[in-house]
Design a protein that fits this description.
It is a single chain. This protein has 317 residues and is an alpha/beta fold. It folds into two domains: 159 residues, Medium-chain alcohol dehydrogenases, catalytic domain (Quinone Oxidoreductase, Chain A, domain 1, Alpha-Beta Complex); 129 residues, Alpha-Beta Complex (Quinone Oxidoreductase, Chain A, domain 1). Helices cover 27% and strands 27% of the residues. Helix 9 links the parallel strand 17 and strand 18. It is globular. The structure holds NADP nicotinamide-adenine-dinucleotide phosphate. The site of NADP nicotinamide-adenine-dinucleotide phosphate has 33 residues, from helix 1, helix 3 and helix 4. This is Zn-dependent oxidoreductase. It comes from Micromonospora rosaria.
């Protein structure tokens, strides 16, 4: 079947490790696995890390990439795929599609039947394909980890990214005052259209915030600390710009800050996110929808950092 996969890894030039071509049909490691016909998928920064070899050792190659999918189950139902799989071979006890098990950038993907959630009424498959990784991560950062119900103001760093645009859209829909930084003036203009106050990286905010959404890392972490109100939660799920920031510990204890790490979310949290989006009519921020035949262009755009929101792949085109 047609697929986009890592044929090798390349730490310096990840796009050179991407191949589009034929791969074997999915196999079912267990009786409770099913095959989903993928109708739409979306890119995540995780796919670039995989091509660099982060979390993808040579003995697992070739590996079909892609964490997110929406499609059709064997009974003809429209479904959203929860991408974390129980994995005793991984030290975390779980892995995300495309780490140990083939991913979603293919005509078909195999997953446990329990990983399938019904597509909410009124939601398109292309919108749903944005939610399982970036949006789920942002949802858990805000709710379970950030305890945003108790917050008045939220700061989102690096606002152009998939997780970050999700956090802005969700926090605005929850009625919070949202501040967002981006290096790019055009992205700041677009984030303001979502209802956030957009500022340059490092800018002093008009107030301290109760929750900070951090996926950038070293480039923004000091600003996150300085912008945090007493007892604030700085929730970290990524470090695109470096994972070893300088941390002012005096500020951490004096302001009684919580620095909280998180990864992805549970299947129940994805169900809650789907319900929230359906009921509040919140839809993902989509940069563009590209046909599968142009998936290499989408990878190049993500790598270049020019994306605003999610890049969706239409597997029917
Ligand atoms: N732990 C998890 O479960 C989990 C889940 C999803 C994602 N992640 C991680 O979270 C990060 C974001 O993922 P994503 O898919 O949202 O990525 P993305 O769409 O590529 O967005 C990355 C954003 O980071 C900002 N950025 C990059 N380099 C920067 C720099 N040097 N200085 C300031 N800002 C910079 C950019 O914002 P501006 O251009 O607007 O400044 C960019 O839009 C990745 O590292 C990813 O691996 C982790």
């Amino acid at each position: 079947m047609r697929a986009a996969f890592a044929s090798r890894t390349d730490a310096d030039n990840p796009l050179a490790a991407l191949t589009v071509g034929e791969q074997p049909e999915p196999v079912h490691p267990d009786d409770d696995w099913v095959t989903v016909q993928v109708r739409a998928s979306s890119l995540n920064h995780h796919d670039i890390w995989s091509l660099r070899g982060v979390g993808l050792p040579a003995d697992r190659l070739p590996m079909i990439l892609g964490c997110d999918a929406a499609g059709i189950d064997p009974d003809g139902n429209e479904v959203v795929v929860y991408p974390l799989i129980a994995d005793p071979g991984d030290p975390r006890g779980i892995s995300i599609l495309s780490e140990h098990f083939p991913g979603t950038f293919a005509e078909r993907v195999a997953v446990p039947r329990s990983s399938l959630l019904p597509l909410p009424a009124g939601m398109s498959l292309t919108d749903a394909a944005c939610l399982p990784t970036a949006w789920l991560t942002a949802w858990r950062m805000l709710t379970t980890k950030g305890r945003v119900d108790d917050a008045a103001a939220v700061l989102v760093q690096g606002a152009g990214g998939g997780v970050a645009t999700a956090a802005v859209a969700l926090a605005v829909a929850m009625g919070k005052r949202v501040y967002a930084t981006s290096r790019d003036a055009a992205k700041r203009a677009r984030i303001a259209e979502l209802g956030a106050t957009a500022v340059e990286p490092g800018a002093r905010l008009p107030e301290r915030v109760d929750v900070v959404i951090e996926t950038v890392g070293a480039a923004t972490f000091d600003h996150s600390l300085k912008s945090a109100a007493p007892m604030a939660r700085i929730v970290v799920s990524g470090a695109t710009a470096g994972h070893e920031p300088t941390v002012n510990l005096r500020r951490v204890f004096a302001m009684q800050l919580e620095i909280v790490g998180t990864s992805m979310g549970t299947c129940d949290e994805l169900r809650d996110l789907l319900t929230f989006c359906a009921q509040r009519k919140v839809r993902p921020v989509v940069d563009s929808v590209v046909p599968f035949s142009r998936i290499e262009d989408a990878f190049a755009q993500l790598h270049a950092g020019t994306v605003f929101g999610k890049l969706v792949v239409d597997h029917t085109a």
